[in-house]
Amino acid sequence: MDFLDVLWSIIIIYFLIAILFALFRVITDIFRDHGLSGGAKALWIVFLILFPLIGLIVYLITRHAGMTERNLAAQKQSEEEFASYVRSVAPAEGGSATEIANAKALLDAGTITQDEFDALKAKALAS
Question: Residue by residue, what is the 3-state secondary structure of the chain?
Fold first, then answer.
């Protein structure tokens, strides 16, 4: 095999992986959509299996707005579940878990440095 064959193979593999990733995202979105009936979901799945590229393009053109809304809703629900978990783990008086979670949020936002985070964490664990 010469260089062009290897390059062509890499390009083909890249696009196959991209198509598979897009198919899984769309199939996940189909099952996440509570507005679609079971029959409509089945038709979309059959259409995606029989005509994957055309099905992807049609789905993304016709249902992209709803797909974005469902992704944002899932992300918001995940954040709320995490926040409720942190509140349930934290002691009632405010405790170290809440302080560490707040410090971690500040670190992730870039408001404080790693050294400042370590100092706040040590202080919270000491109390």
Answer: CCHHHHHHHHHHHHHHHHHHHHHHHHHHHHHHCCCCCHHHHHHHHHHHHHCHHHHHHHHHHHHHHHHHHHHHHHHHHHHHHHHHHHHHHCCCCCHHHHHHHHHHHHHHHCCCCHHHHHHHHHHHHHC
The model carries a pTM of: 0.60
Annotated domain spans of the chain: 3-89, 92-127
| Of 21, 38, 33, the residue nearest 62 (C-alpha) | 33
- Provide the token pair at 98: 């809440």
Confidence check: pLDDT of 6 > 70? yes
What pLDDT digit, counting tens, does each position of 80-125 carry? 998 888 777 665 455 677 788 888 888 888 888 888 888 888 888 8
